[in-house]
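Contributing: when you submit paired examples, paste them exactly as shown. First protein:
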Amino acid sequence: MSTPKRHHYIPRMLLKRFSNERGFFFVYDKRHPDKGVQKRMLENLFVERHLYTQVDANGAKDVSVETEYLASLESKASRLFNKLVFATRRGDPPRLTPVEKDVCIEFFYCQHMRVPERGGRSKEEAYQRSKRRIDFMSQFRSPKGEELSNVFQDGTFRRMWNNAISEISRIENPVAYEVLSQKQIGVGVIRKPKPMRSFVIGSNPVLKLAPPIRAHQDDQVVEFWLPLARDVAVSFCSSERDTTVALRDRHIETLNRNALDQSAVIAGCSRELIESLVNYTGG
């Protein structure tokens, strides 16, 4: 079996629910505004080579993070999201078992951590920035700088860097779990969706919504949202019970604008929708 090289940091099982009827996406990349809105296929969207590959000192590649941990989590999440989407479209409230809520929490946290822009830049950009800093230290004969520069030369630092990036997607965080477990599941649905009235998905798809002065993740007013489809989004929020609500236009706009604000790239089923978001924010 061939080793997978192209790793989607947003799973295909999630992305496929945001394309248009012909399977295309319309995409805007804030890092390249001169390119405008482009049309892409799913296979070329939110993907990076060897993002989760670990390399040992002999150069052997280990893709178990991608093929075992992430594949297993995505499979369980896919079944859960199918259930939520179908139930929501029927008008039923979310009825998650404790096990299903655990899956939802794990997916939220993992998806939030696994994106390459989590640190504000891609894996390669972050690596090059660290290298420039260490080169600068070495010029001034800093013992630490010289030591790190030598590590760069033999490739050890790159291997360690790549391995750390791949491993971060499956680090257990009991604090994050506790925060999310204390919140309720809310599902928002767009009744009578249209191309211009639908959700987009960003390269950082887990959206954090909070008042400016109350942005800490364990604050009860902070909400975490994840669009599951063009017409359905799930959240961890402060409410008395798990619930489903029909979203008004202002709610849809808030989620889409936050997707653009919090992501380097956004994608959706409509060119006009993406262009309207970019024009609104002056992107």
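Second protein:
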Amino acid sequence: MNAGRFLTHSRIRILRYFIHSVSHLRLFIRWLILSLTAGLLIGGIGSLFALCMTEATGLRSRYPWIMFFLPVGGVVIVLLYRLFKYQNDRGTNMVIASIHSEGEIPGKMAPMIFVSTVITHLVGGSAGREGAALQIGGSVGAVIGRVFKLNDTERRVLVMCGMSAVFSAGFGTPLAAAIFAMEIGSVGVMYYAALVPCVVSSLTAWRLAVFAGVEYDSFAKAVFPELSIHGALLILLLGVLCAFLSVIFCMTLHKTNTAMKKHLKNPYIRIITAGCILIVISLLLGNQDFLGAGVPVIETALEGKVVWYAFLLKIICTAITIEAGFKGGEIVPSFFIGATFGCLFGQITGFSPELCAAVGMTSIFCGVTNCPITSLIISFELFGFQQPAFILIGVAVSYMLSGYYGLYRDQRIVYSKYETKYINKHTKS
């Protein structure tokens, strides 16, 4: 009797496992189709965005006088948002809020941020493009979710798929793009349910972008020194300084926004003033190194060469650009700030400016986004797996000591950085 019951129970368990497996397989196929669709569609848009950004930056490089149209470009952006009645734009914060089911992303966000970011880079606004990419991907992902009549939970996953796809297509780091979309919303928690969809959409978009001819920035892969106690201590100190600098960057952005809206209430006057300030700074310097994303300066820093004031001036120019109303992202500027500061630190201490630039670049990125896993992965994709211990030290220290500050006010700190404690609060501004 006991043997018979055992066999019966075993068959029941096997049957239940088979039913669950079939259910999971159906879910897998469903998300495979949805994420492939998202990867192809949103990846195509991301590829077009990347190509337009490259062309805009190339035009300004060939014709430096385009910089004098900064005020005009700013007015066009403000007018565009007013004409389409989209004046309360919360940017990437709105995308992050939608992941928490705290609002819907309007479909018009994608074309608005697409056009306005291209204009910003064409005339020379000091901004990146990845923040805009997240908004484009999140917006189109939300639209696809509504078209397919997905429920709220599934739409949130598709928003993350869209973020991964455009980030991957635009920056050429598919592994980091997949993880970033799952990590950016909530610090201390990862949305692992979105892992397969984000990976599929990210890789699909990346391959589509490569096929479309998108070219990515290639950073010099210098030979880094071997790990030593002396080197580890210096990198630990660099991580501490990068944490403080990331807080300064975030505070500067938020305080500049408050000050500009207080003293320059008219959005047209505000953005014209910002454009004129950027022109004056470039004329005084005799170059346009601090306009646009600044990738050439990042490349120079990774070769061990930098001017001492580069990181400070980039913070100022980016804050003026973004908070005045120009569109773009803060991620590549954070790379610029980290690379130039790290290189300067290396020059002062005499310890491999190239390595310090790479560590500074990823540490500042981690400090402002609160995404340590993405920071590690993106460093491997950009610099290879040379001496990952140095990168790990810088990222870990910066993550801990940057506290609860961040670029995005709607990012939620779910678990404390200092103890295993649930706190669930928004980042500081």
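If you have annotations for the second protein, write them as plain sentences, like these:
The longest strand covers residues 422-426.
The two ends are 69 Å apart (CA to CA).
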